[in-house]
């Protein structure tokens, strides 16, 4: 019989959960008590939250990139955040929480960005139950409802578990317990997860508020949660997914909102040859363009010359001084030495081939400007 961890037993170090995903790929009619309804943080806010937790000496066992939406609904945004997180906390394991749709095509990029494991949100394994739980499913550009959406979700999740197993990436399954709806389905889901190589099964309590929310939610009590964990624990290692009172999961939500905006670092620096594309290697950059946000849009704020080439570590220390008011530096690529040197001075380096507008928008957490970066 597989072991289980009872409710109330917690470890001295907990993962930090970053609510980083604004959009959904599958809209469940029920929400979790662990992740209350709220807007997702921007990538810049997530980085500020993580930086503060590390500076405060928080005992973190890892980092979890999660909702309130799904990180794979906007894969590019998530990848940018993952690279920044990995630069700031290279030794902490990073886990992604997702419904799994789109995972097979994104898996290689996620692994390159530093994802060490994936938690799949699986609340049903029968089409009838999935149709009762989900208002809609969007596996691509088209929104599916009822039986069609349920079938697409189940097929996508089965494929996601298979590619994770083939890739040797640890997969966990997260189950949202909705009393009177899918409680009797829990054993089937746990068995499904165990058969597909899941290493752990986590039970979360639902706040039974439908979309739109009902006036009288029915929530699982401690006894119901304990019974659910015990039942799942007969199939594979299972845990109560609620944060412990004594060692609560580190959360971006617990931070003072004012601490997420650093007025001393209003800019993002970009290595670009034309002001349109991120296309310059950091080591070859002679100047960097600076961007800020005005009236909710990314705007060009000026440029700064890079220190002369050569000089070893001293060049990157000088560049950190030049960019002391920047929250991030974006380049097409960068060597490990400058990455670490700049990170040590509080400047994470984000790399990748994209447009200036797209990259800066993701860092600032604002919408793109319809292809136009405003001038000064």
Give a verbal description of the structure.
This protein has 10 helices and 19 strands. α1 runs parallel beside α2, α4 (127-133) crosses α5 (146-167) and α8 packs across α9. The protein is elongated, with a radius of gyration of 22 Å. It has helices at residues 43-55, 75-88, 103-112, 127-133, 146-167, 186-195, 222-233, 313-322, 336-344, 356-364, and strands at 4-5, 14-21, 26-28, 31-32, 60-68, 94-98, 117-121, 134-137, 171-177, 200-207, 238-240, 250-251, 267-270, 277-278, 287-294, 297-305, 326-331, 349-351, 354-355. The strands form 4 sheets. Strands 1, 2, 4, 5, 6, 7, 9, 10, 11 and 12 form a 10-stranded mixed sheet that branches. It has a 5-stranded mixed sheet with strand order 16-15-13-17-18. Strands 3-8 form a two-stranded antiparallel ribbon. α7 (222-233) links the parallel β10 (200-207) and β11. The protein has 2 domains: 4-254, Aldolase class I (TIM Barrel), CATH 3.20.20; 262-364, Dinitrogenase iron-molybdenum cofactor biosynthesis domain (Nucleotidyltransferase, domain 5). The chain has 376 residues and is of the alpha/beta class. 31% of the residues lie in helices and 24% in strands.
């Amino acid at each position: 019989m597989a072991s289980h961890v009872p409710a109330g037993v917690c470890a001295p170090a907990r993962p930090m959960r970053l609510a980083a995903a604004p959009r959904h790929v599958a809209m469940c009619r029920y929400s979790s008590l662990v992740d209350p309804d709220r807007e997702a943080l921007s990538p810049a806010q997530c980085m500020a939250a993580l930086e503060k937790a590390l500076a405060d000496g928080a005992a973190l066992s890892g980092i979890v990139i999660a909702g309130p939406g799904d990180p794979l609904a906007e894969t590019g945004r998530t990848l940018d955040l993952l690279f920044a997180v990995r630069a700031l906390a290279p030794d902490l394991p990073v886990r992604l929480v997702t419904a799994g749709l789109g995972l097979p095509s994104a898996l290689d990029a996620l692994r390159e960005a530093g994802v060490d494991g994936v938690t799949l949100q699986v609340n049903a394994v029968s089409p009838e139950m999935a149709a009762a739980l989900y208002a809609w499913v969007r596996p691509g550009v088209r929104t599916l409802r009822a039986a069609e959406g349920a079938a697409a979700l189940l097929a996508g999740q089965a494929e996601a578990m298979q590619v994770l197993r083939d890739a040797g990436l640890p997969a966990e399954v997260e189950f949202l317990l909705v009393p009177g709806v899918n409680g009797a389905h829990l054993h089937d889901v746990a068995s499904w997860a165990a058969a597909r190589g899941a290493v752990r099964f986590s039970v979360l309590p639902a706040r039974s508020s439908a979309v739109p929310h009902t006036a009288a939610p029915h929530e699982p009590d401690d006894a119901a949660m304990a019974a659910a964990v015990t039942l799942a624990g007969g199939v594979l290692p299972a845990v109560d997914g609620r944060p412990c009172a004594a060692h609560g999961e580190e959360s971006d939500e617990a931070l003072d909102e004012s601490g997420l905006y650093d007025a001393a670092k209003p800019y993002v620096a970009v290595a670009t040859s034309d002001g349109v594309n991120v296309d310059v290697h950091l080591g070859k950059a002679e100047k960097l363009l600076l961007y800020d946000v005005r009236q909710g849009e990314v705007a060009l704020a000026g440029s700064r010359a890079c220190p002369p080439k050569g000089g070893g570590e001293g060049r990157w220390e000088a560049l950190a001084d030049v960019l002391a008011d920047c929250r991030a530096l974006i380049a097409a690529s960068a060597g490990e030495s400058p990455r670490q040197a700049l990170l040590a001075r509080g400047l994470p380096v984000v790399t990748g081939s994209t447009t200036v507008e797209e990259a800066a928008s993701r860092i600032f957490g604002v919408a793109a400007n319809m292809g136009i970066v405003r001038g000064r």
